[in-house]
Write a structure and sequence with these properties.
Strand content: under 5%
Radius of gyration: 20 Å
Order of helices and strands: HHHHHHHHHH
Helix content: 55-70%
Distance between the termini: 34 Å
Number of strands: 0
Oligomer: single chain
């Protein structure tokens, strides 16, 4: 249940893009702080639930570990190829398909007429419905809300969505949407809200449908609260 609070490799490109654009002199500390924040939030939420929802005597847990051996070159290469193949498959299926859908929704209005202004597109209408939820964080723009929704498919889709909507993910293009503190708040939300559909489906297969819905709602709520707290701290300290 708490594994999704930890930073996965799919979130790393999002961190790298925004940290390099807005924290060029402190890219590594900014990224490391996100990893640490995810661990701390997971520990706090686990402690709270351990004394509320899951209070009681813990069930004994025993795991038998295999013998440690030096991996062979063949095994290492096969494992590396399997991971690379999985990423390539995702890149050319889920991410590509998401980019095509985003392009279509961005290009046409509800009557399927081609638009010249993105704000008149179907995508803008859908994003505008969700944007007020993120207004307290300072990024209540339909483009950012759309990127976050697409990120539920795969976190890499956040970058592909911003690329399609902005035409570029250069520092100049991103600076028209974010300031440095707002970009960090955005990253905090990306860190803590549900990582992808695959993660939620894994929770469902392990714990059942009710827990999957509960975990999804829990992560969205925690992400919203922590992002709001970080935004408030930035306001009180004069960074915003």
């Amino acid at each position: 249940m708490f594994t999704p609070f930890m930073s996965c490799s799919a979130k790393l490109p999002v961190y790298g893009l925004l940290c390099a654009a807005f924290f060029p002199q402190a890219t590594v500390p900014a990224m490391v702080s996100l990893y640490i924040l995810g661990i701390l939030v997971g520990m706090i939420v686990a402690t709270i639930l351990n004394h509320t929802t899951f209070k009681g005597e813990p069930v004994p847990f025993i795991m038998e570990l295999p013998n440690y051996r030096m991996p062979s070159a063949k095994t290492t290469l096969l494992l590396a190829w399997d991971k690379a193949k999985g990423f390539i498959t995702k890149a050319f299926t889920i991410i590509f398909a998401a980019s095509v859908v985003i392009w279509f929704l961005q290009t046409f209005d509800i009557r399927f007429n081609m638009v010249t202004d993105q704000s008149q597109s179907m995508l803008a209408g859908l994003g505008g419905l969700i944007a007020p939820v993120f207004a307290p964080f300072g990024f209540g723009d339909w483009r950012t809300s759309t990127a976050l929704v697409c990120g539920l498919v795969a976190k890499e889709s956040v970058i592909s969505t911003l690329t399609v909507l902005l035409g570029s993910t250069s520092a100049a293009a991103l600076s028209g949407m974010f300031t440095a503190p707002i970009a960090y708040v955005f990253l905090v939300f990306v860190l803590l809200y549900p990582p992808c559909v695959a993660a939620i489906s894994t929770v469902r297969s392990e714990l059942g449908g009710r827990y999957a819905v509960a975990v999804f709602a829990l992560q969205v709520t925690v992400a919203w609260i922590i992002a709001f707290v970080v935004h408030t701290v930035f306001l009180l300290t004069g960074l915003l």
